[in-house]
Each structure stands twice: as C-alpha cells, then as structure tokens.
Amino acid sequence: MTKDTFLDNAGPNTRLAHIGYNPRDYHGFVNPPVVHASTVLFPDCSAMERREQKYTYGTRGTTTTDALCDALNELEGSAGTVLVPSGLAAISIPFLAYLSAGDHALIVDSVYEPCRHFCNTMLTRLGVEVEYYDPEIGAGIESLIRPNTKLVHTEAPGSNTMEMQDIRAISDAAHRHDCVVTMDNTWATPLYFRPLDFGADVSIHATTKYPSGHSDIVMGSVSANAKHWSALLAAHGAMGICGAPDDSYQILRGLRTMGVRLDHHQKSALAIAQWLESRDDVAKVLHPALPSFPGHEIWKRDFKGASGVFSFVLKVDEQAQFKARSHAFLDARKIFGLGYSWGGYESLAVPVNLTDRTIRKAPGEGPVIRLQIGLEDVADLKRDLEAGFAAAAAAK
User: Fold this and answer.
1) How far is residue 323's CA from residue 325's CA, in Å, rounded to a whole number?
2) Which residues carry this modification: N6-(pyridoxal phosphate)lysine (predicted)?
C-alpha cells in the first residue's frame, strides 16, 4: 500500500502528520532536508537552454519549499501553490497577477486593513479602480459587476468584526461574468473551510498564523485552481518573491500539530465568547459560532469549525470615553499580550480601529476589542479579562 493510498480516507490529523513529504524519498528521515540554494547546476548547455530539470534557480523552489507546497495543495485541493514572505504579499501577488490598468476590482469592506492600504495606494496608482462592497451582499454582488470587473476579493469571517460571506453565491455570480474570485482564508485554515470547494478560484493564507503556530515565522501562501494557476505562477516568478527554505521547514513542522492546536483554540475561544456574552459590561460578542451572531447560519452551513480569533464590543455609555475605557481594559491585562498578529500559542488582545471602513462602520455601543485565544487555561484567561473589566469600569 502506497502512502497516497492509505491517506485517501484518513482523518485530518492523520493527513497533517503525513502530507507533503515521503520519508522514503530521503533515506527514511521523517522530516525533509532543508535545502539552501541560489545556484542550481545543469549538466550541459542543452539542458540549460531547455530547462530540462525540475529545479533551475533558488527563487523557483527547492525540495524543501516543494514539500510545503505539496502539503498545502493536499489541504486546499488546489492545482498549485506559491510561497511568499508574508500574508500581505499573499494578497498582493494574486491581485497583480489578475488585474491590469483599466480593470475594476470589488473588495469586501471588512477586509484586512493592510489589504485596503495596498488597494488604495498601489492598485489605484497602477490604474485599477477599486470598489468596496458590503460583506453580507451575497448573490447581490452581481449588481456591482461591470464589464471591466476582473476580480472579486472575499474574506470570511471579516477582519476584526467577523462578518460572514456567502462564498458560493458570490463565486457563482462572479463567474457568470468571468471574474476571478480570491479569498483570504487565514482565520479558518483549509481544515475548517476550503474556498475552492465553494467556488473561489484562489485561496490566500498568512501562514504566519495557524500553520506556523508559534509566533516566530512570517510567511504567506497562495493556492489556485487549474484555470488560474498558470497566471499566478507567472506573476510569482516575474516578481521574484519566494518563501525561504528554513521558514518553509518550520511551517511544515507547524502543520503537523495544527489540527490539535486549532481544536484547543476553538474550544477555549468559544468558552470565553459565551462567558463574555453573559456579561452586562459587554455590548455584543462578534463570534460566528455563537447563535446570536448575524452570520451564524452561514458559518454553521459552510464551515467545519472556528478558530481562536474573535472580537467583542465593550459597553460604554459615552463615545468620549471609548478610548479611555478601551485602553484601561487592555493596560490591565497580564496574560494577554498587547500585540498584532495571532495564531500563536499565546493569547493576544488589541484595540480595533475601524475608521477605514466605508460601508460597515464601527458599532456605536462601545469600542471593539479583538482577542486571540491561545493555548492557556480558560480559567486563567477569564481572570485576566476580569481585571480588564474592573479597570475599564474605574476609568474616567
């Protein structure tokens, strides 16, 4: 029985433990070798001219980066994957691959803020018209599609405020007009949602987050279906942007435990979210797995699970106190770190700035605080949050 055969009907954790590399390919060692390379030698001029070998130069991949790409293709169900140095690069490369001057792009209004900055600066300077749309528009997005619309970008749940999107409905509408559909799927990972199975053409990840899992690697990946793979690969090569072999090795190692970690993140985050929802000093909890959340039915229908990131609205009566109460809450914490990113083993909390939104404005009940629930014990995290609520209540 071959390795591929025994994985055909295997569960997610079994697959994560074995995909991407076959020990029999390298003397039985269970982890792939880390190949550092720039120059790759050819046997003769004819082979060099025709590029008659798998590896030609370090930017075009090594056995180490290929091991990670193969694993991600298995998880995504994609025709190909490219690695890039960050999650933002994973967004910008496909945008540059599929958009040209004079094109129109539809970008969800709840998008990751650095993506919005890239669109409003680089894309517009290159002659691409950018329009933001309501994340809950669903099939209604067809009314926004123009003859020159070439790309629809989605992100579910939405950054910071967690709005859900009907990816199948949006993809079906976009494809009727031959638009490429991209999705930032960092929150769910392909374990809990596979964008290509729901009609998206390109799945984007900040592998910095859950695939890494240890807050020590910055990297991104982009996986495409067969129709859009060649254009993505060409843009990736033209830009000369690639993932490093050491980082690829670390991400592949992180993948082995991602399922176990995500399960813990999910359970702890939901326990904290339910506890927060019961508190009088919380106006609302923004977590798709809560039945009270507006996008819960879409999450329940399409997703297999939830990760450890969600937000809540601190109840504050006067808008003039939003900042002071938010800062008091966050400055009181000891276990939660005050820092960007998420997906690592440690819990994090940050104030959310929604002033960049054009359609989905900030809630009026109070400041939004985003939590990343790490691998700590729930009781300890609750105590840390309790101190924050006490400090916020005492703030002037």
Assistant:
1) 6
2) 209
